[in-house]
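A common beginner's mistake is to predict each chain separately and then try to dock the pieces by hand. The better habit, illustrated here, is to supply every component at once so that their relative placement is modeled jointly.
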Amino acid sequence: MSSPASTPGGRKRGRNTNPPTRKFPTCSILLGQDSSTGDLMPMPTSPATDILSPAAPQDTSLLSSPRPSVPPNEVDMSSPLMYGTPMRGTPARQRPDLGSVRKAPQVDLHSEPPSADGAVASESNAGQRLVIWGTDVNVGTCKEKFQRFLQRFVDPTSTEDENAGLDLNEPLYMQKLEEISVVGDPVMNVNCRHVQSFDAELYRQLTCYPQEVIPTFDMAVNELFFERFPDSFLEYQIQVRPYNAVKTKSMRSLNPEDIDQLITISGMVIRTSQLIPEMQEAFFQCQVCAYSTRVEVDRGRIAEPAVCRHCNTTHSLALIHNRSVFSDKQMIKIQESPEDMPAGQTPHTTIVYAHNDLVDKVQPGDRVNITGIYRAVPMRVNPRQSNVKSVYKTHIDAIHFRKTDEKRLHGLDEEAEQKLFTEDRVQTLKELAAKPDVYERLSSALAPSIYEHEDIKKGILLQLFGGTRKDFSQTGRGNFRAEVNILLCGDPGTSKSQLLQYVYNLVPRGQYTSGKGSSAVGLTAYVMKDPETRQLVLQTGALVLSDNGICCIDEFDKMSDNTRSVLHEVMEQQTLSIAKAGIICQLNARTAVLAAANPVESQWNPKKTTIENIQLPHTLLSRFDLIFLMLDPQDEAYDRRLAHHLVSLYYQTEEQMEEEFLDMAVLKDYIAYARTYINPRLSEEASQALIEAYVDMRKIGSGRGMVSAYPRQLESLIRLAEAHAKVRFSEKVETIDVEEAKRLHREALKQSATDPRTGFVDISILTTGMSATARKRKEEVTQALKKLIQAKGKTPAMKYQQLLDDLRGQSETAITKELFDEALRALADEDYLTVTGKTVRLLA
Amino acid sequence: MPSTHDWINDPVGVVEGMFAASQSNPSSGWEARAVEFFKDRLKEKDAHTLVPSLNDIPMHYLKPNSLVKFRCFIQDMFDPEFYMGVYETVDPATQAKTLRCGKYKDVTECGVDFNSKNTVTAERQTFYCVPIPGENPWVKERYANSSQARVVPSTSYVPSRQKRSYEEDDDMDTQPQKQREAHAGPQSPTEHHGNGDCKRQETEAPSSQMTSASHLDLNFPLPGEKGPSCLVKVYEDWDSFKLNDMLEVYGILSVSPALSALADEKDASSNLLDPTESMETAEEQRVHCPPASLVPRLHMLYAKQLQHNNPLLPSAATSEDNSAFLASTLSEMPSVREELLAYLTHVLLGDALAAEYLILHLISNVYVRRDVLPLGKFTLNMSGCPTVASYTERLYQIIQQLVPSSHYLGMSLQNMNQIRLVPKKDYVANRLVSGALQLAKNTSLYLDETQLEQGQLDTTGVRNVTALGNLISWQKVDYDFNYHQMEFPCNINVLIASEGRSLLPSDCQIHLQTQVAPSHLEEYLSTMHMLSQASSQLNKFRIYLSVARLLDYSISDEVTKSVEDDFVDMRKDDPQSISAEDLHRMLVVARLLSLSQGQTSLSRDSWLRAKHIEALRRSRMEQHKCVNGNEP
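With all components supplied together, the output reads:
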């Protein structure tokens, strides 16, 4: 592994005998490729001729670029064309993704080829500047520029997860080179945005002529690498993989002008093909004299040699399959992601070819960003046919994949989440935020077709914004919940479902399920065996899918207990644990829950507590930050306004409605912007105000021996205050935010936690499922019962019914059977007595 | 200027002429002019009737590369494709280069120079179009009769069918046959009028769908449909078209056998050497490049979106024409309404109130959406339908005669568990497999719940019922894209006929009160007066129903005020009696009632009348509740 000219090197693909120069025809920047003949390169067919003669002269004839540092050699190693040559013994690997597989000439749509017709290279103004045919790329300059970029580019503000662990003040890519030398994975991912900010011209060339520029980059990076780490061993030479071309296109906007350019598109993988071995080079052996020869694929065809060069027998050569060279290839179908689609159209699909190690990197269902070269290939000309279909086949040769939904399983990748906002849009949003009544404006823009319920809308608005995410995992407390959970309950027909539908349509990661139809499995995740691959696949349910979004659950009360139980974990810990079919994992489910429940007795009974009305376990109820009642207020002024609202709904035209309310799109952007960019923190005064508010809440009840607030309520308050600060685009939570949070919280409490017996707000209804008065009452009955039993003296057993009658006779207030049972149970808990069937036995 | 004959029979010649002329003057925008030329031609009086229509003329009578029209429905949208807009050919003998135009063509001339600098790549979009699903026979007939295009198979023309059989093996030959079989078997429920056995048809339908799917499935949304389907190539503003739009496409018919030959060629040649060619699966190949003789290509020159497919109305070419027509019919509307009411009362066994509601239902239309809420829909649940003498099916036949497109869906258990209602994306073939809910706007969907018996719904069944529920409540269908669902808004009039209250939601339920004793029902039905197919009265009804839908509507401030007052008063008396939902319904009823009388704004009288009939309906429901207590 020393001399480049003589080492066959560690090629893996069964080419043990070929001399290194054989690589010439496969070089991807070979100039002949874009020219019309394609046969410009003499096809080396015998070892005798191809060691020296054809390559070198040709080189000079095509490109006499300034030769940089490399010592003169018998084969001109400095020429860019030598890109494919083993460098210090490390073999190059073909890059079919760049089209080094020869194809028919590409449709050339760039309008600016500076070269004159047919000229192989053109000289522009001063000093022997030569460019690759059909482009304005000068290999030498391009290489130098890229090396400079690698050596100097620093991005101190980088937040990408890929750069984790790197020193941000040192040249980023040099550190990556070091990483390559250590890890030995010869792939260098280059963020195009970095290139753009460093050298816009270089970036332009990269996107316009990727097929020519990327090999140049490869060359540059390899020179640099082997200069710095001369002793490192790589399987093959480093390949540069640019990604994140700023010219990101949606699939819909791809047009003929993008052909042969570097593009980045996002989409969802819908199908992957089997691995396709693609022949790169055919191996022929003469049946007579065993002389062997190789033929490169040319435009998808192999020209079988008719005559053996050695023994001159005709038609004696046979193809030896297992000595031919194949490369891996896979067809992947990508579909537009549902978010980028205009309404009423079907999604487009595009074919992507993945090569070599990119094969099997993605699975159907993955959301990916693909960087690659867009290609259009005309239908093959068939000599037997007079005319051809005038349609091109298009595909993308993938250079880089980036999965966008991985973060759902791993950490949160804020970068990918970021939506791009134009300057103008940000300006409009900020102007809107500066308005003093922005809170009211936004809340009224929410579901304008639903009448009033201002506080509920405000609550949902705060839910849409969410609190600030706090991470205490370092101290072992884990994440604090930042999402606000809301429960709406009330009479049927008070447009609860409509509100849910609206929210579901508004947020990008919304899920809508109905409690009636969903099982625990449908909400969480299930394991499925893929019918094709027989692999176990984890299919995520509604809660996981709405990670970072809102999960709307209608008919919450109709959900089975089993299903509801999974919500406990989700609603406080924000994770989902799965132990199923050998898969044990914890998925993130940082979802806000918006649920709607109907009262048990179809109509809300104002004489009963919330718990009694909807019959949900209080453990679950206490996890809701806000519980709202949607009731028919039954008052005349309200009726009038309602009627007006409804009638105007029916006769106003679309435009009139638009004027009155904010556009749904603006609202969407506003929320998205606030969620990504605004992370409010509590100010000093605000924390003081929060403390006071909490103490006040505790005080309300203490006078009557009731607890009216728990720490959970304090957390709710903080979340709401933070969300309100987000609405104002404020980085600081201030007193007004706390005020509003307090007000909203109180409003919700007033509705849901008022004890119908006393008329007081009593938080214990929600936390223990029973109001304090009811608990006191129970206590009293228990005591009375105990006294009664004691008064009876030493009777070891009593009749149940008789005891109840006795107690009823004694007590001045009515005692229900339930109350009596509870009292008995309480006494049984004290080990005072046991109840067996209809008899009550005392325990000694 | 080319004569009439030219532009219909040889549109390609016209286009090429313009292309050639533009070569001397490159910035002339010949493409826009070509489109403009055809538009102008078609504007001329009755010119569009001269163009033969794919809907009523068998394909083998049509000349390839002639101008045809097609009244269709966009069932699926394929990916955009790049084609050679301009290319250069080299004459092998003389080496002379000629520039040629590739627009509106599938196949290039021979001797294309792929490396020419003058090649221009352009983009076009392909839509898969089928005839309007559920279009009733009277509509088809009427359109066919109004056409003046007389197409006679010319002597110089060799039918493509015949030509194909020379070139190709039996595999190709069997296809059209199978196709014919698939269609000959079950008739669509839309096809028979009189024999009234929809039930049998429906149960047979799924099986027929399966057999045709195995070979070449033309992917019609409704089972048992027939007619040509077309790959429409769109050259301009394809973004303005949406899935499920109704279109009238004027375009150049291309049935070049070379297209199918090309596909064959590919199968035959070895795939080993060029894997790029074998990437598309056989299914995909079949769907995207079906034989041109079965699925012709239509290169769109001009298309207009259809607001309705009622042949008795002007097709809304210009809005002035249209409004003039509307104005002329307005005055007649009250009298037609009386006649229709009498007729429907007769059909609904003497129940005038139900007839009134049926009219309202038939003219209902989602006219606007407020965020998620569709306004103007009026799903009617007609409960208490007699189950004897296949009454519900007869009722459907009556409706079929009145509306341009409709579909009968018997909600038997078997049907619900088997048929595909929701369209689903088939990723193997890369197309949208249609379902019965993929319907054009204002199609009447008739759900016969009297067919439902006790039993178990399986997963498909539950999904189908949910889909129907969503359709009724939100007027949307969630198409199944496997990895996600996509919501498509729709505008379908759903009428549910049931014995008791329907299990599906509805905007309004009316219980049928027959004036006919059950014992006489059979007799009554047999003597039931059916209007003859072409009677002028029936045509009047048809015009009436379509026109009422197209009218504008408004509410004056005064009336608004009085409606509000009314509502407050009603609430004052008894808050439980009327909820916001009731007000919603009353506003819709009032709107439809006004429109049914040809009034374009709500009058006090109409409002009172709406209140009145609502009260009648409610009292009837109360009554009914008392009669058999198990009703909720």
